[in-house]
Amino acid sequence: MRIAVLGGGHGCYAAAADLSEQNHEVRLWRRDAAALAPIAESRAIRLKDVSGTRSVAIAHITADIGAAVRGAELILIPSPAIAQEDIARAMAPHLTDGQVVFLPPGTFGSVVMDRVVRAAGSRARVTWAETGTLPYLARKHGPDEVAITIRAVRLPTGVYPANRSDEALACIAQAYPSVLPCGDALSGALMNAGPIIHPPLVVMNAAPLQGFERWDIHNEGTQPVVRAVTDRLDAERIAVREALGYGAPHFPLADHYTSDRWMYGDAHKRLVDSGDWREHIDLHSHRYVTEDIVLGLAFLASVARWAGCDAPIAHGLLAITGGFLGRDLRQGPRTLDAMGLASLSREALAQRLQEGER
């Protein structure tokens, strides 16, 4: 299958190498041509995983987004949600009918990117999908090397518009057989693990994150008191899903720590043992803050308000982060209010998610 991978982060390089190794024709696009140069010259990415280290050839490596998107059956965007609008504007002129855009994860980016693409003048019949996590726990070890610690074994995915779910999921399954249907784009967004796992870890480890050059929030940063807050926050997410009529499985985050039933299977020990997550996290610029709190947690809190669900942990973590960022995160760009959706009834929003925006 012809797959465009858009972005230059850990997940993008992991996807390009992994999907190329599965004999897909991968077109990897990165805006920064200078940063792309090390792999553009070799036409390959060095991939490290449990099978060892090897060089994986990539079919096309380009700083021209049109060259990546044109003719691609699946467009994969494993980039942070903060980049979605810019990427949508850049790819809009090159989209064509029948393409599927997959956001792992999305933070309701399906609806946001569709609006941006249409505002840019595109009328292509594109289907959007978003899931609960990246398909990989991965970290780049250099400008041309990426290490995959573990691959996701379950990817619950919502589709927008939902009336095209069958064709979208069939396309995605050719690249990721672990994809699972979970309904519409709102259901997919409410599977997003980032706004559940990262806000308590960042907020409750704020002092060591500022005090030490490197700190592993998943190792010594994950103590029982932090886990307790994470479990309560996740219970709020699940309560919102249930209030909106989304059924199980909800993939409770506790399974990430205690069983093999979560999206990555039994992954927490391997994540910690890798040492790749002992890193510097800037509380103002790291994506755990800019993506998972400013966008993701604010989105969850806004959906809870709209659904009439009590979510004190979500609102509390949002308020504390807003305290050190110096702004009210309840007014963020990824809230239902900011997107003009908070005034809709449940029935009206459900219909829009099913059929798309006219």
Characterize the structure shown:
The chain has 358 residues and is an alpha/beta fold. It has two domains: 2-189, Rossmann fold, CATH 3.40.50.720; 194-247 and 281-353, N-(1-d-carboxylethyl)-l-norvaline Dehydrogenase, domain 2. It is 43% helix and 18% strand. It is built from 16 helices and twelve strands. The chain has helices at 10-21, 33-42, 65-69, 84-91, 109-119, 165-175, 185-189, 194-204, 206-211, 224-243, 254-258, 268-274, 287-290, 292-307, 312-325, 346-355; strands spanning 2-6, 25-29, 44-49, 52-57, 60-62, 74-76, 100-103, 127-131, 136-142, 145-151, 155-160, 179-184. The strands form two sheets. It has an eight-stranded mixed β-sheet, with helices on both faces. The protein has a four-stranded mixed β-sheet with strand order 4-3-10-9. Helix 8 (194-204) crosses helix 14 (292-307). The radius of gyration is 19 Å and the shape is globular. The model has no long low-confidence stretch (mean pLDDT 96).
Which CATH C-level class of the largest domain is it?
Alpha Beta
Side by side, the strands of the main sheet go: 5-2-1-6-7-8-11-12
Content of β-strand: 15-25%
CATH topology of the largest domain: Rossmann fold
The total count of helices amounts to 16
Overall average pLDDT: 96
Radius of gyration computed on alpha carbons: 19 Å
User: Could you give the count of β-strands?
Assistant: 12
- Structural class comes to alpha/beta
Unreliable stretches (pLDDT < 50, length at least 5) are: none
